Amino acid sequence: MSEPKIVEVKNVSFRYEKEWAIEHVNFSIDKGQFLGLVGPNGSGKSTLIYLILGLIKPNKGSIRVFDESITHFNKWKEIGYVPQKANSFNTGFPASVLEVVKSGLVSRLGIFRFLKRKHTQKAIEALKIVDMEDFAKSNIGELSGGQQQRVFIARALVSDPSLLILDEPTVGVDTKHVTDLYDLLGRLNKKNGITLLMITHDIGTITEHATHVVSMNKTINFYGTSEDYNQYNAQGSLQWYREQSDQAFVTTHKEVTSDV
Ligand SMILES: Nc1ncnc2c1ncn2[C@@H]1O[C@H](COP(=O)(O)OP(=O)(O)OP(=O)(O)O)[C@@H](O)[C@H]1O
After folding, report:
1. SUPFAM superfamilies attached here (predicted)?
2. Does 47 contact ligand 1 (Cβ within 6 A)?
């Protein structure tokens, strides 16, 4: 029997007011995948993430996370979330790196439980994963954009999630540190076994890091492996889909004729 999906989005449509923000979206994420979600501004990427996080409800279709309907799901510690522009603290922001990471242990129910020593220990462990333990006592506002982003990843990792969702983590991070950030994400995925879903505008480089890609503009234009996405881009969508349907025809034809 195949393993249950980590995320399963089935025929989902959502509108904020009159306009549909996303329509008939279908895709799933298996355990261990690193899925890059790409698309132009306003194409519905963040909306899709809010739906997966249960923050808004689909008007049509259904979503399952960890093999449970999103409407009943309550194991939120399984999901770490790094929101868009998390790294925008100014130098005056009065919180230490350790405090920011510990705040990731506040549950969605708002129970404030993070003052215990073991929680400090958990936060330090999360900072170690992102190579930021030396900055535990620093003020968050004193760090660079890339360093702040690592702290926010540590904040999302502090509850040991199996799925990490990141909304454009490379925005505001300089080129050298973008490479470091991708190395970190690769390590979390391959070494720590964390499934990743990441919104990005790095269309040129995402396939070097992600195993799978969803490209959307309200509806899904492409969903498949990074290898196939490179071919899809190289050939143009029309040619690519033509070849796919030709191949499907040949396969089906072979199956049918060999059955005769
Ligand atoms: N709270 C809201 N109320 C009404 N419309 C909204 C709201 N949030 C987003 N929208 C609209 O929904 C559509 C999808 O927006 P969304 O933020 O999901 O796109 P996105 O792909 O994440 O964009 P970006 O790459 O710019 O972050 C856009 O047309 C946007 O204007």
Report:
1. P-loop containing nucleoside triphosphate hydrolases (SSF52540)
2. yes
